[in-house]
Structure formats: C-alpha cells, structure tokens
Amino acid sequence: MAAGSSKAAEFHGPSINEFFPDPIFFAGTPIEMDRIVLIRLFAVAVLLVFAFVGTRALKLVPNRGQAFIEYAFDVVRRNTFDNLGEKDGKRFLPLLATIFFGVLFMNLTGLIPFMNIAGTSRIAMPLILAVVAYVAFIYAGLRKHPGTFLRNALFPPGVPWYLYIIVTPIELVSTFVLRPVTLTLRLLMNMVVGHLLLVLFFSATWFFFFDADSLFKLFGIGTLAFGIAFSFFEILVALLQAYVFMLLTAVYIQLALADEH
Predict the structure, then answer these.
(1) How far is CA 26 from CA 23, 36, 39, 41, 114, in A?
(2) DSSP code of 30?
(3) Three-class SS of residue 25?
(4) Phi, psi of 29 (to 5 degrees)
(5) pLDDT tens-place string over residues 13-53
C-alpha cells in the first residue's frame, strides 16, 4: 500500500488516548469534566426524559411509545422475578431496571454522531455499577442471613474441615473479588474494543476515499461496508451487555438469598 500511495503514511488508526480527552470544564479540580463525562451526563438526561415522557400519561390501551417502554421494562421485570421470585423481585426491581437502562443508554452513545464513544468505555462507570451490584449482593445476603451468610460463603457446609485450606481461599476470590472485577472488565472491554473497531473502519474509509491514490480508493467501499455492518452489531452488543450486567446482578443477589446460607 505504501508503494501505491504516497499518502499512506499519513493514516492514523485509533488510539487509546481517545478515552482520555482533554478537560473541558473545571480542569485540575476533583470535578473535572471532559468529553466522556459530558456524554455520560447527556445519557442520564436522555434516560430521565425518556422515562418521564413515556410514563406521565399511561393509558389502558397503550400507544406505540408506551408499548415499547412497557416491553423493555417487562424484560427486566420477568428476568428479575424469574431469578428472585415475586417478593424479592419487587424489592430489587428498581435497582436492576436502573442498571439495565443506565448501561444501555450509556452504551448507545458510542453510536450517536458527534459523540461516537460510549459512556461506559472508561473504567469509572463500569466500576461504579459493579460496586453497586456488589453492595446489593452483600446487603441481600446479610439482610436475609445475618449470622451465616459470610460464614457459609467462605466455609461451605458439608465440606470436610481439612479441605477448607483449599476451598476457603477459592471461595473468597471467586465470590468476593472476581465477581465485581469480571462485571467491570466485561462491560469495559466490550465497549473499548467496539469503539476502536468503529473508529478504525470509518477513519480508514475517510482515508481511502479522500487521501489514497487511484485504485486504492476502492478499498474504502469495503471499509465502509464493514463499518456500517459493525455499527448494527454494536447495537446488539450494547443491548446484550446491558442485559448481561443486569442478569448477573440478579443472579448474584439470588445466590445471596438462597436458603443454603
């Protein structure tokens, strides 16, 4: 390619620095705001407007907008009740619905023109959500089994005492360390990789169409096609990651509430 185009060296692919833009407001302070922080605030504002407009005038026979909101919320409700039962499901439904829609709206900002990056593509937001899920898990276990939750989680009943030397460290790491870490990294890495691929496809398209020489411009058709196809795939990823985060949170809470504790 370098032999066929004198401008090939000018192509610059995506960089990890895109996730750390320059501050826009309050630079150098604890409340410093950059582009990604503003995108997160925008996503939250849109979500609040979406929830308010969609529920302010509910009708017995819903219109299309109300039907869409009810369907989306019903997905969360059914999964919550399936995992936690109706009684505990009602307690934790607001939390799980907030997690699902919050993650979804922040994920989708990566596909909105002039934003082009997910609010969950930097570790702070996935980590905060994972900590919320972790606290809910611990709270549910201690509330339901105040005297036995931690003991049974670290020292499962029925295991010979001498095996606790092996079992307890494994349970400590898998239950109380890996769960919030995997929740954080799963969401973060999917959003980071998705952004980098989209930037790669569309920046390559721009380069081939406007900077490459002669027949090399035809490569832009391929990169554009891949970029469009992957944009639709990213919508699926955004939905799936929001669903998985919500579902795993529900599963962890269910495990904490289980009678075995």
Answers:
(1) 7, 14, 16, 15, 22
(2) T
(3) strand
(4) -110, 165
(5) 888 999 999 999 999 898 999 999 999 999 999 999 988 88
Helix intervals (H) in 145-177? 149-154, 164-176
Query: CA 14 to CA 217: how far, in whole Å?
Result: 20
- The string of pLDDT tens digits covering residues 124-161 is 999 999 999 999 999 999 999 998 999 989 998 888 98
Report whether 17 contacts 195 (CB < 8 A).
Answer: no
Cα distance between residue 186 and residue 34, in whole Å: 24
Closest CA to 187 of 138, 227, 243: 243
Is residue 118 left, alpha or beta, with left meaning phi > 0 and alpha meaning psi from -120 to 50?
Answer: beta
Each as own residue / partner, the long-range contacts of residues 132-135 (CB below 8 Å, 24 or more positions apart, any chain) are 132/95, 132/99, 133/99, 133/180, 133/183, 133/245, 133/248, 133/249, 133/252, 134/179, 134/180, 134/183, 134/252
- β-bridge partners, 34: 23
Residue 14 token pair = 């995506």
Give the dihedral of Cα atoms 83, 88, 90, 96; nearest 10 deg.
-50
